[in-house]
Amino acid sequence: MDILKKIQDHREQEEELKWEGTFSEYLDLLKERPYLAQSAHSRVYNMIKSAGVAEEHDHKRYKFFDEDIYGLDEAMEKLVEEYFHPAARRLDVRKRILLLMGPVSGGKSTLVNLLKRGMEKYTHTDEGAVFAIKGCPMHEDPLHLVPNHLRKDFQEEYGIRIEGSLSPLNTMRVETEYGGRIEDVLVERIFFSEDKRTGIGTFSPSDPKSQDIADLTGSIDFSTIAQYGSESDPRAYRFDGELNKANRGIMEFQEMLKCDEKFLWHLLSLTQEGNFKAGRFALISADELIIAHTNEAEYRSFIANKKNEALHSRMIVMPVPYNLKVSQEERIYEKMIRESDIRDVHIAPHTLRVAAMFTILTRLKESKKASIDVLKKMRLYDGEILEGFSDVDVEELKKEHADEGMSGIDPRYVINRISSTIIKKELTSINALDVLRSLKDGLGSHASISNEDKERYLDFISLARKEYDEIAKKEVQKAFVYSYEDSAVTLMDNYLDNVEAYCNKAKLRDPLTGEELNPDERLMRSIEEQIGVSENAKKAFREEILIRISAYARKGKKFDYQSHERLREAIQKKLFSDLKDVVKITTSTKTPDEQQLKKINEVVATLIDEHGYNSSSANELLKYVGSLLNR
Ligand SMILES: Nc1ncnc2c1ncn2[C@@H]1O[C@H](COP(=O)(O)OP(=O)(O)OP(=O)(O)O)[C@@H](O)[C@H]1O
Ligand SMILES: [Mg+2]
Prior knowledge:
Blueprint: H1 2-17, E1 20-22, H2 23-32, H3 40-50, E2 53-56, E3 59-62, H4 73-88, E4 97-101, H5 108-122, E5 130-133, H6 151-158, H7 168-178, E6 186-190, E7 200-203, H8 214-217, E8 219-220, H9 222-228, E9 237-238, H10 242-245, E10 250-253, H11 261-273, E11 275-276, E12 284-285, E13 289-294, H12 296-304, H13 309-312, E14 315-319, H14 326-338, E15 346-347, H15 351-363, H16 374-381, H17 391-400, H18 411-425, E16 429-430, H19 432-442, H20 451-483, H21 485-503, E17 508-509, E18 516-517, H22 521-528, H23 538-554, H24 565-588, H25 594-611, H26 615-629
Helix pairs in contact: 3-4, 3-5, 14-15, 15-19, 15-20, 18-19, 19-20, 20-24, 20-25, 20-26, 21-23, 21-24, 24-26, 25-26
């Protein structure tokens, strides 16, 4: 019921947006909204801008890409500032093919799709509206109707410069259908749609022997030649190639450099002069953004070939590198899993993060700075704050290697390994160790990994594994401490009593014997040492805590276990080190006694309720940490 209603609403909305009128009525529209006559490049740029731009320390983030492209803010900024923006302003880059160059599965196709889907939506808005000569298979710009000798006057009156000349087909239609009265020619609003082949075209190379240039530029319609008498009658030609259909919008050239040359030559004049040749006609003007993609190896061999010089000079190459941030890589996997058929499998917490760490490590280049190892670099790139490093250092690091992000493990490999692990073992739950093992096992059969890389990658697997060990231990520590919450509170109260006595140079009273005691220095130090408070700093630390307590008291608030971040950490660590043996015994014993079993169940429950595990992944985690602690 609901969906049917929605379908109907949608149809009504579409109906409302429709517009049809004569050319002279269209000119009235232009008087009010001159932007309707904008070029394809300008429309794409305005679409990107209309989604919003965030200024973040000296960089612009174009929100348009947020939804689908993760971790490539800087590459997207460059793409907009160096191509889309100047192209929108009719600068020379508009006359060049935009060639996205990047490693496999680095998001090139995703980016182009985002632009295409974006344009489909944008042409439904007021700002993105597009008008065309009605009944034209190339949805020609109505302004082409203005004869050349009047265009200067037109520009003075409307402030719009017209580029391109009326196509042979419409020239003929004006005569035959409208008796030469261009003001009566019908104009309609069009909406881009790849499915309906309006304003969006895609060309992908196939076997050059069988692939026909007609796929690009259309072809003669032999069934109508008899009717019109000649092959050079435009009415006997089908303007249904991808270049025709993409007019006014976006033309995607997939794997451009795999294309046979003869296809590429058409692009030379299209980009440079804004027109192309089809059949036996005068040149056909087209206004479209040509966007192509390729990988680095193909690009290198393309430019090495002298024959390609002319074409090369008409391209603008924009890098689309791999993402280099662990947390963004995790989001990429989450998205890919959501879109796949393994989305129902339980993936233990931290699994994707650990896989992402490995992947990012394979993409990073070693820094020249001795103080920065790959793990540090990985953390800094992900926005972590490390002592002794500033934003400036991170910017410098990024500048060290121009080609960083152009190689390494691709996200599809990771997802494939995860899927195959699940399918092979018929697992319903997987953890970081399963995935690391599978990533490792797959390296041998990965087509593009050299033996030398493989050695490096194996090291990264162990690095990621060590990171996971730390994460796993912390996780169990937290869960144990959580179920020892009471002990934490007691320990804390005890510490605070001692600190108070110490600062006031007073004595404590033993609750059992009533005996007067000195503050328990050993207890206080054993807690403070957990967070690195030195002997010299202990007095200041204790006084600071007392000040905090009295500040709380003044405001009528109770100072408790959660009130002081560092103190809480110290207490937890102390507790955990006291508990270490308990954890060790509890997690590794094969035949736990009743008491131990109770504790294990509590901890498992905490892991499930508070940390996103299920019972099998929680038990696996405990077992693993048990084995780590016993080493
Ligand atoms: N930076 C990224 N942000 C979001 N998703 C990404 C990113 N990089 C890769 N992906 C995901 O990885 C998968 C492969 O990406 P895509 O097909 O766009 O890559 P490609 O560069 O076109 O690859 P190919 O060279 O194989 O054609 C997609 O599911 C895509 O969503
Ligand atoms: Mg692709």
